Amino acid sequence: MLTIPRKYIYGIAAVVFVLAAGIVYYGYWSGLQREAVYELARSEPAATSSEPAEPLAPAEVKVYLSGAVANPGVYTVQSGGRIIDVLEMAGGALGDADLERVNLAAYVSDAQQIQIPREGEELPPEASGAASAAAKLININMATAAELQALPGFGPVMSERVVDYREKNGAFEKIEDIKRVSGVGDKRFEQIEGLIAVK
């Protein structure tokens, strides 16, 4: 029968002990590291964008319809509504209304005054009515960030994006090009389509 000298048995036992101790220590150290990472992740606040969120256009807007209409007054319409929608809500135009000077398909914006002129009536230069809508279009190639804020849904952040894009990429060739600006999607474009120009 083969016998193993006692000194070899002690040596083997020592090696086994060292290996076992190393495994236990490694497991303990790995557990501490995982716990430290978990605590760090739990204590750190969630990352947030430094860029303030741009408020969306309101779901409803209020406009003041005046002039040659059956029932002038303040009307609430869905965002993206058109002048023709407000006119219908007001009971329609009077018989002497000069609708040839009104872009009935133009979009309305919050707090806008729309004046329906009578035939032969001269409107004051400062009138913000539908008759002067073409002159009031905002040129997105020339407007400052402050002027762009007059558009529905355009706050300081969105307006600055338009100016920055224009400075980096040149003038917009058509109004649809504004959709290339981050944050200006199809829905927001529909709300400003009748309020902007490139020339």
Beta-strand proportion: 5-15%
Strand order of the largest sheet: 2-1-3
Radius of gyration: 35 Å
Helix fraction, binned, reads: 25-40%
How many helices? The count is 5
Backbone shape: elongated
Using the coordinates above, name the CATH class of the largest domain. Answer: Alpha Beta
Structural class: alpha/beta
Weakly predicted, low-confidence segments: 44-55, 128-135
* Corresponding CATH architecture of the largest domain: Roll
Q: How many distinct folded domains?
A: 3
| Helix and strand pattern | HEEHEEHHHE
Distance between the termini: 106 Å
Mean pLDDT: 76
Largest sheet: 3 strands, mixed
As for the CATH topology of the largest domain, it is Ubiquitin-like (UB roll)
**How many extended strands?**
5
What can you see in these coordinates?
This protein is of the alpha/beta class and 199 residues long. The chain has three domains: 1-48; 60-132, Ubiquitin-like (UB roll) (Roll); 138-197, DNA polymerase, domain 1. 35% of the residues lie in helices and 12% in strands. The protein is built from five helices and five strands. It has helices at residues 6-43, 83-89, 145-148, 156-169, 186-192, and strands at 60-67, 73-78, 112-116, 138-139, 196-197. Strands 2-1-3 form a three-stranded mixed sheet, with helices on one face. A two-stranded parallel sheet has the order 4-5. Strand 1 (60-67) and strand 2 form a beta hairpin. The chain starts with 5 loop residues before the first helix and ends with a strand. Mean pLDDT is 76; it is low at 44-55 and 128-135.
